């Protein structure tokens, strides 16, 4: 495992900047935004291994499978929501397939693109779900469990993207 320098940890939201340690952001208070926070199982100064990333990707696959099984709740958010989840599953599967210590530069670029696309698809679903929850009380009951599932999934996808950047700078 490789040591790396400890990067500055701060947040910038419009004209507001500062540290985020100990902060909380309530998803219901934010619209049209993307927020991610991760809790790493790898110390900040240690480069994660491909094996650790593979385990994280397996967790993501499990979360996506659980999410895709909620077809009724997904379609209540958007007719395209199930397709978005399927797309994210396909992206994560592509990452898993190409994740090798001796990956070519082309495969490395593809892995970065695929994990970014998966994160984007799930982030868009989270935004749509949040909008629906704000606008329609009858869907609120079906949308709330989706938000509860989407939040940790987004955190895991963000963590995977970060680890990929650490493994292949």
Question: How would you portray this structure in words?
Answer:
This protein is mainly alpha-helical. It has a single domain, classed as Four Helix Bundle (Hemerythrin (Met), subunit A) (Up-down Bundle). 63% of the residues lie in helices and 4% in strands. The protein is built from 5 helices and 2 strands. A two-stranded antiparallel sheet has the order 1-2. Helix 2 packs across helix 5, helix 3 runs antiparallel to helix 4 and helix 4 runs antiparallel to helix 5. The relative contact order is 0.17. The N terminus is likely disordered.
Q: Please, what is the average pLDDT?
A: 79
How many separate structural domains? 1
Largest sheet: 2 strands, antiparallel
The number of distinct β-strands equals: 2
Q: From the alpha-carbon coordinates, what is the Rg to the nearest angstrom?
A: 17 Å
Strand order, sheet with most strands: 1-2
Helices and strands: which structural class?
mainly alpha
Poorly predicted runs: 1-12, 20-40
Briefly, what is this?
With 169 residues, this protein is mainly alpha-helical.
Question: What descriptors fit this protein?
Answer:
4% strand, Four Helix Bundle (Hemerythrin (Met), subunit A), 5 helices, single chain, 169 residues, 2 strands
Question: What order do the helices and strands come in, and which of them pair?
Answer:
Blueprint: E1 11-13, E2 16-18, H1 50-68, H2 71-77, H3 81-98, H4 105-135, H5 137-167
Antiparallel strand pairs: 1-2
Helix pairs in contact: 1-3, 1-5, 2-5, 3-4, 4-5
